[in-house]
């Protein structure tokens, strides 16, 4: 029997290279080895996005991106969080099991608040909705970027708390982090993130890619522009880059142009494939995914309701 894999992505903005290397690529490369679930975390994205037109467009974009990268909907369950109401229901139950001081330790929450994102109750409870996402499906493996490691720990803790209180019900999941791309840096050298406005778009046009690359912050003290190099090595091996960086020592403009070209060469075919996928295709995929996900989630919640005593 194949192990079960579950992962998710918020439709909170334009997809970027951090999403690609931290989530889309690892999923596209490995999903067939597992029984795989891919969820568009639309309720999670409400913690930062309150624009219905944008949200609808972003949901379509996320699914389109996975399809453009070759993920076959017949071989993975692709669905939207809000389509399976058991997620928010189970999140509430977990919220009654974990403490406020425990949730206060969340790095992601603290980072987002420090960046000026409004500290809503939803943002604070975010990890328990994510725990519900993962645990409803008896997930074994959760592939995520390094920034989400702690959230998977929270899911384990929620499973543990529930199992101790009500008897063995949930499987404890394990995160799967790609070490060499654990955190893709943005143009300012910090984690590339929609909320930090430091992204390089995944399906951007050449001009957008070039503009983003040219804005990479460089510092003249080191041997080479580290922020440029850190992104460059995602596209070329360190051996390939050695002579380029050696021959153009101090010439940051040339190095940035070379990076922009390498990104464009990589993105262009994917951008074309993405164009060929319609909104109708996306809706069809999500409707099928909803059926499959809901069957599993509903059966798990029937068990949970029985165990906690709300089913009479
Ligand atoms: P989100 O939408 O912020 O990001 C989606 C995935 O992309 C990874 N990622 C990165 N990886 C490396 N470098 C970066 N700069 C970078 N930026 C983003 C993230 O680690 C993530 O894997 N909470 C999740 C969404 C979610 C989820 C889930 C994930 C909701 N429920 C259940 C797994 C399982 C999030 O905010 O991802």
What does this structure look like?
The protein has helices at 17-30, 42-45, 52-68, 86-95, 100-103, 107-114, 121-135, 149-166, 206-214, 226-232, 238-247, 252-275, 279-308, and strands at residues 4-9, 35-40, 76-80, 141-143, 174-176. With 312 residues, it is mainly alpha-helical. The protein folds into two domains: 4-182 and 279-308, 3-Layer(aba) Sandwich (Rossmann fold), CATH 3.40.50.620; 203-274, no CATH class. Strands 1-2-3 form a three-stranded parallel beta sheet. Helix 1 links the parallel strand 1 (4-9) and strand 2. Helix 4 (86-95) packs across helix 7 (121-135), helix 7 (121-135) crosses helix 8 and helix 9 packs antiparallel against helix 12 (252-275). The radius of gyration is 21 Å and the shape is globular. The model has no long low-confidence stretch (mean pLDDT 95). Tryptophanyl-5'AMP (TYM) is lined by residues 6-10, 18-19, 21-23, 41, 44, 130, 133-134, 142, 144-145, 147-148, 151, 183-184, 191-193. Tryptophanyl-5'AMP (TYM) binds next to strand 1, helix 1 and helix 7.
